[in-house]
Amino acid sequence: MSLNILLICGSGASSGFMAANMRKAAKKAGLDYKIQARSEAELNDYASDIDVLMVGPHLKSEFKALEKSVPEKVTTILMEPDYYSILDGVAAVKHIQKEI
Q: Which of 33, 38, 80, 95 is most solvent-facing, going by the fewest CB within 10 Å?
């Protein structure tokens, strides 16, 4: 299954590192995932083209609003602080697989 996944955090910096680690993990697992990271401000530019939105744990208070700002077909996931803080791409990919 091919998935377009967007990670967002405040500025896009930390999620950029996480996206790189997730791309490596997905490739190693043989998954067809296109993973990119953007800042929260850019979400509307990409919302209609994604299947999964992953939100940085530090945006937890804005999660419901972010979830409502994307089409219903988009699976929205709040990333877990334990894997996000260490940029564990394998754990993040497993989280996606559990949610979809």
A: 80
